[in-house]
Amino acid sequence: MAALKGKKILLGLSGGIAAYKSLSLIRLFVKAGAEVKCVCTPAALEFVTPLSVETLSGNPLYSGLFSPKNEFKTAHVSLADWADLLVVAPATANTLAKFACGIADNALTTLFNAFDKPVVVVPAMNTRMYRNPATVANLNLLKDRGVFVMEPDCGDLACGTRGEGRMPEAETLFAYTAWVCRHFCRNEAGTNSGASAISSQTPCARNARPDWWSFYEGKKVLLTAGPTVEALDPVRFLSNHSSGLMGSCLADELSLRGARVYFVSGPGSCHPRFAPYRLLPVQTASQMYEASMELWPEMDLAILSAAVADYSPVEVSDQKIKKGEDGMLLALQKTKDILASLGRTKKADQILVGFALETENELGNARQKLERKNADLIVLNSLRNPGAGFACATNQVTLVDRKGNVVPQSLKSKEEVASDILDYVPALLEAV
Ligand code: CTP
């Protein structure tokens, strides 16, 4: 993932059984081209060994405040200067409490106190400890101070129970870190890698939040994604090449920005890494229409990235259609246009974003769709651009809005395109 290439990451481990997952996380960071240095609390070293941490990171471990082994003189300050980002995984209730109170009694807590760049903490503990009012208050305090707190998973816990508090898998931690880095870490030029730049006036990047931070928090967003599938008989169907990757990237970016994502998804091959608020799997255009129409009145925003079938068979055969002597004509009927239907009932405070995949007269067609379907923004992509469209990890889009703005973007990963679209949306509410 490009966001982490060349980044200097400090990985802090405190003493929980989930520390074994952090070893895989080190590998993922290193594979992505980041440089990793690890800091362990004494309790963490009951779960992982210095040898495994040092071998995987390729750097000395920092674990004692007064250890002569450390290459840094005042290590907590030098390491804080060196790193772009601090990730604490697992973060135990004890370490979180110390972070919240400013206690500096070991290498990790001291480092945290000296760190003024983005910090990610990943709580991992038993459900009752996670729900304990002291832990809840500490996490809220840390969030208020600008620390990124990753929500733990719900699942089997080491103590033999099931519930909240399980540390997410290394791949998910990696994706979350990459997201924080893309938006909040400064690159070599001194600006943010992502479009959502933090003001350079801000003295402490930990407390800086871009404008969209408050825009998406708690917003209800309907998102359609993937292809639809229209059955001809029990064996065959009509569909398209959409993988659902663009929609999955949008779902992740929305969830990470704090939105409640109502994800109406056709049977694509890509799935969001971060669980949407509600997942509504559908197969057909008609099911996608019904689900979307039911949700729409309650939504603040809808983004329709699905590749919806324009036609479905008039009849679906119960039995496999047998091959005849001659060719075969299929009778098709038009499906309902979901974007146009939402556009017809759109309220003044709702925002509607559609996509347009074109092969010719791109801008003309996009403008026409914007008008015809009463959308606020059309994300236009042309199959004539190499690297754009269905079957690739990249996309090149042009944003066409109802104020008449046409904003072409360069070729980017679909994750970055998702981020660009969401950066653009808040301005759509401003008066035309
Ligand atoms: N769309 C929809 N319901 C349909 C067809 C399309 O909601 N039955 C939405 C898509 O999700 C997309 C936008 O409309 O956001 C444009 O889709 P596209 O396939 O580019 O355009 P169509 O309106 O289907 O027109 P055409 O296929 O003729 O280009």
Explain what this protein looks like in three dimensions.
By secondary structure, the chain is an alpha/beta fold. The chain folds into two domains: 2-209, Flavin prenyltransferase-like (Rossmann fold, 3-Layer(aba) Sandwich), CATH 3.40.50.1950; 215-317 and 331-430, Rossmann fold. The chain is 31% helix and 21% strand. The strands form six sheets. An eight-stranded mixed beta sheet has the order 12-11-8-13-16-17-19-20, with helices on both faces. Strands 2-1-3-4-5 form a five-stranded parallel beta sheet, sandwiched between helices. Strand 6 (153-156) and strand 7 (162-166) form a beta hairpin. Helix 1 (19-31) packs parallel to helix 2, helix 1 packs across helix 8 (170-184) and helix 10 (245-256) packs across helix 14 (414-424). The model is unreliable at 193-204 (pLDDT under 50). The structure holds cytidine-5'-triphosphate. Cytidine-5'-triphosphate (CTP) is lined by residues 224, 285, 304, 306, 308, 310, 335, 337-339, 354-357, 369.
Give the SSE layout.
Elements: E1 8-13, H1 19-31, E2 35-40, H2 50-57, H3 75-82, E3 85-91, H4 93-101, H5 107-114, E4 119-123, H6 127-131, H7 133-144, E5 148-149, E6 153-156, E7 162-166, H8 170-184, H9 212-216, E8 220-225, E9 230-231, E10 237-238, H10 245-256, E11 260-265, E12 278-281, H11 285-295, E13 301-304, E14 311-313, E15 332-334, H12 338-344, E16 351-358, H13 362-372, E17 377-382, E18 394-395, E19 397-401, E20 406-408, E21 412-413, H14 414-424
Parallel strand pairs: 1-2, 1-3, 3-4, 4-5, 8-11, 8-13, 11-12, 13-16, 16-17
Antiparallel strand pairs: 6-7, 9-10, 14-15, 17-19, 18-21, 19-20
Helix pairs in contact: 1-2, 1-8, 3-5, 4-7, 10-14
The chain binds cytidine-5'-triphosphate.
The site of cytidine-5'-triphosphate (CTP) has 15 residues, from helix 12 and strand 16.
